[in-house]
Amino acid sequence: MKNQKRSMILIFLLIIVALSGCISSSVKTDETVENGLNINLISIGLGGSEEDEGITVVTYHFNLWNRTNKSIILKTVEPIISKEIQERLIDRDIKLDINKKVDGNTSEALTGTFKLDTKGLDKEGIIKLNINVKEFNIAIEQVIGINEP
Questions:
Q1: Count of Cβ atoms closer than 10 Å to residue 54 Cβ
Q2: pTM of the full predicted structure?
């Protein structure tokens, strides 16, 4: 009975993701991006934890585009989440350590997860939390030099 309930919740959450959980934030291609980095699409998925029934696993995926002609070192990525969601985090450290070179005019696919305490919430309660990831704190390192004629 417990496994059947868990399976039903997981199926329901997957249906939600399929129908409305894939959220996109588009940046117009002619829009100026101050630092040359942008995200064209973010997708979010919700699922149950195999360890504990009262935990919801949030998975996000996006492509970070380096629209400059210079390479950068992508140091860390941290999703910006609402205060209500922060209070439900199982682990407060949701920052991803990347430490990867991203060449100019290329993109890097990034995926991260975090776990939320959703004990006592049914599927409607989880939906009402409005779990959303639209922005990220990104730390980069870039080597620059003097332009010589």
A1: 14
A2: 0.72
